[in-house]
Amino acid sequence: MAPGLRxxxxxxxxxxxxxxxxVLPLLxxxxxxxxxEYRGAFWLDRxxxxxxxxxxxxxxxxxxxxxxxxxxxxxxxxxxxxxxxLLAYSLGAAMSFVQLRDLEELVRLGTYxxxxxxxxxPLAYLVFSGLNIGxxxxxxxxxxxxxxAVLSVxxxxxxxxxxxxxxxxxSATLLTAALITMIGATALIWVRSNHLFSIFFGFWELTRYxxxxxxxxxxxxxITAVPLALTSSVPVGALLGKPIPILGDWxxxxxxxxxxxxxxxxxxxxxxxxxxxxxxxx
Length: 282
Known about the structure:
globular
């Protein structure tokens, strides 16, 4: 038992935790209902997303029609890479992007202070009260394309490889959410942080392509400072047995542990930023 923590205090904390866990599904349900109020417009917007990202993949296809491979990757392998990257981003961003992007405005207007007086974790409230089902179009396209790629790629699938793909996808999802959370949390310190999202998406767009086609400096950045390669070509390349720059044989293990490690870093950063927050008065 922790020093100074009496049994009835521990029981009280457990009751509060259970209460919070019961509230989370309610927050999600309320937000989903608000987004689905105009269902026709919602699904038209999803169709637009599918067409938009479908055109991006079509552009890659045009490149492959002229050049048989891209960095040693064939058309089905690039389809698996693209779908993996899009699906990991969609799942991670659904839990973080809009919520943390809007945090800057909450801080600037002083309305973030109202979250601090709620009997609830501000981060948990932001995430679950704003869970974005707008990424449905991304998910539909990514899952369909991944299904085709899995069947078309020249690769002998096994229980181990399928398990690695799923575990790496979970890790990539966590890593995406962690990076977005860290960017958004910076608003608690600087007030302005949304300009950092432009940098994030600039690097994210590069990860649609194999890591080995970029110069060494970009490769290092995409693995370390902005580790978005760990959400795309590193895990997929490790799965397919492709040579991975810098990481080499460590690419597979690095892909699996990157998500959990960056989640812990994001939690530490959030706590640090919260400690630096001075309120609406500055």
